[in-house]
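Note to self: user wants both folds in one dump. Writing first protein now.
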Amino acid sequence: MGRLITPTELPRWVPGKVICASDGLGWRGVALRGYRYLGQDVYIPPMRDYMIVSYRRGLTPMERRFDGAWTQTRCAPGSISLLTRAQRSNWNWTENVDVCHVYLTEEMLSRLASEALDQQIANVRLNDVLNVEDPVLTAGVEAIQREASTQSDGGNLYVEGIAMQLSLHLLRHYAELRVDAREDPSRLSSMQRRCVVEYIDAHLNETLSLQTLATLAGLGLASFTRRFRASFGCAPYAYVTARRVERARRLLTDPRRALKDIASDCGFSDQAHMTRMFRTRLGTTPGALRAEALR
């Protein structure tokens, strides 16, 4: 198949006037480009990202060949086209149109699909959709375009939130998912890892039982301990201790919190226990870290 092209390379194959873009804004997992296109007949090589096309101005007959089959329709403001990643396609339209492209990365869609299904997803493929009226997709693209134009405070987080909503909508209504059956049997599965980590974080201030964690994963003690170490690179006790130290470090930045209360909230037996763990892992004490953070 060769190299996959990026959104900024697309004009080499589909020439048009750029009318808006998110270039240089530092968005993660999502990008936007708006174009003014004359009627044309074009070939698009396989693209790196998934693409949503929102039609903003102009009415045109539209033809597209996707996976060997041609589809014909008429696109107008409110129409949406979808193109899956790594897919060759041919497009033909005769009238001038303004469109807005939103690009979503493979990492974003695959991660959300894996979280939604509690399984590792090998591939996400968008269906052959040349023209659909979908208010959710249209509104999402418009919101991202406005943010690219106004560049308001907190724009990165705002856009990433919208992109996640669009991705989940695509996964629910327009996608085919292929589960990765190649999970390493010597490690915890993605679902087991997620279940165990969420339980540890939710019960970090309590006494955590190795048997409880093994039961959550549906494994015996020996098998769980072996697979946990292979998955996380350390024993369960060391992992839990590291999470407790990290939580305590965050709480130290609040000068109103007493050290003994932080120790209790993070699952240490007492303040002295917390201090010993800090010395062992960080080479310093909670008090010294707090003083440094509050300078």
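First done. Writing the second protein, which came from a different request thread.
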Amino acid sequence: MKLVQISSVFIGLVLFTSCKKDPPVLAAYDDTPYELKYVNNTLSVPNLPSDNPLTIEKVELGRMLFYEKSVSKDGSMACATCHIQADGFSDKNQFSEGVEGLFGRRQAMAIFNLAWHENGFFWDSRSELLRHQAILPIQDPLEMNETLENVVTKLKSNSIYTDQFTRAFGNSEINAPRISFALEAFMFSIISDDSKYDRYLKGTVTLTDSEERGRILFFAEYNPFFPETSGADCAHCHSGTNFENDQDMNNGLDTDAEFTDIGREEVTGDPADRAKFKVPSLRNIAKTAPYMHDGRFATLEEVIQHYNSDIHNSSTLDPALIPTMDTGLMLDADDIQDLIQFLKTLTDEHYLTNPDYSNPF
């Protein structure tokens, strides 16, 4: 009888213990620094903002927010909707369509190596800091058309985000500045430095004959007095290992009478900035068509032909382009194809497929 009683008590204790729920695992702050991940180390050391140190958990939160569709008015769009990794985090459409069925005015810019851009963001460089740029599309009526207040409310109702904000910032408070800091951190983490050209610079691969001729043309200056050695003069604007120059320029797309977008002038109010736009990096250029601020060119052939013979004069045309208008760049069909072959060496397949930048959900 005693044995039966003891057994009953033991079974009861086992059942009681097994029915008890494990205590919830609370999210904990983790300020482990995030180290930028290079492959070939052909880029210079970036000047990252000291007031937003990169941490592993903050970058991860930014990645979640970048792919989060609830930040849009109707839950149908995320940043990644118009910035697709396989397309160099750009949009194959000339203009991106927003939640209201409206289209933007300018082509979606590619996202990579943003830590090396020092003249602002957007085509007109209107956002001085990346964190400022990060939250404007959320509020733009042509894009996500949502208020930051509503975004905060929606994120607060999701324990996944309250936990991740705790890991990234030390507590579960969610607000617009923290959203912008996290998005900035993630976008700073997106690096492209593993193209064939990067490996060429490191001496681990060689270029084909056509790629090498294209490389020479790319970096050689225009010289009307010696046509046989005159180059495409691309490096005047697309310089350094990030292939951009931190400037806003008018590259001769239109005459004064044809301007429909005044570009940088919208920001500064200065007529000297009319039709000037941010010079983009040429990395991954073969993957980020269409081209120019308005996506008017569908192919690299069209882009090169513009510089070769179709530059339009205007009051703010960059002075470096004016001398080429009389003769053009004097590139023949073979030159153009060689130049394109070199531009294709700037494609970084690792960046286009890197799981660190992909959808975390």
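Dump finished. Worth passing along: Confidence is low (pLDDT under 50) at residues 13-18.
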